[in-house]
Amino acid sequence: MRVGLDVGGTKTDAVAVDAAGDVVARVRLATGYGPDEVVRTVAAAVDELCASGSIPRSAIRSVGIGIPGQVEPGSGLVAHAVNLGVDRLDLRAAAGDRLGVPIGVENDVKAAALGAYTLHGADGAMAYLNVGTGVAAGIVTDGLLLRGARGTAGEVGHISVDPHGPVCRCGQRGCIEAFAGGGAVTERWARPGALPVRDVFDAADAGDPQALRLRAGIALGIASAVRVLVLTADVDAVVLGGGLTALGDRLIDGVRAELATSAEASPFLRSLRLGERVQLLPSGSPAAALGAALIGAAAETEEALTHG
């Protein structure tokens, strides 16, 4: 049995996966704030999974953790997980001491990309585009994650697509994230509400001029990310996940319309059929936690090879 954890800023999604790759137990619990509380959350999630699925602790062979922030390639060192109150934490060592099993750690979007690839059919090349508070992607080819030289492959959110566009938190103007990131949209909307991006779409449907501009910007940003991912990695599919995808067809229809409009003058872009490559991750999918379980399984294999 392998465990996978998607450690988010407020909630942690945890799954137990059997030898056949099937999810046999799933729990969600609140994520603690700060390094010690993150490690406590990881241990508590394993305990709750075992209890809910009647799984003996001795059956757990590995634990994989997907977490926001930068994860140093080949290590369990997490840096700049700001929403979790973690500046720097060797999560592999800390969680390994608590759990006594091999631990794998990966950036949450990259873990979700691996899980989405598995759910998508585990074939060819696929990009997972996370559209939530921020925008980032993970690319998987033939089952392997593309990390890059410093682990930043897929950071498409900070590609500027309009030098006169809105200021991004990274300091540039017109970044994809500045147009399509939920945090940036909420700041520019600047109206109270539990679900600001949904409020933007509702107001746009009612003809609100500011909401119409913001909704168009979201479609522009996501469509730009799709073009970048297809033109650089030639992925078969770009699977959208993250909080904004709760909008469903209201979101993806706008993205496909923007892709079609931008390709009108280009036979080359039309030939790529970009709109057909865009898909939504099914609502409630455990992609991130499942991907983390696969990361943990890889750590188990690596440890077995290291120790002969």
Automatic annotation (TrEMBL):
Q: Which InterPro entries match?
A: ATPase_NBD, ROK
Give the matching Pfam families: ROK
Q: What's the superkingdom here? A: Bacteria
Into which family does the record put it? Belongs to the ROK (NagC/XylR) family.
Q: What is the protein name given in its UniProt record?
A: NagC family transcriptional regulator
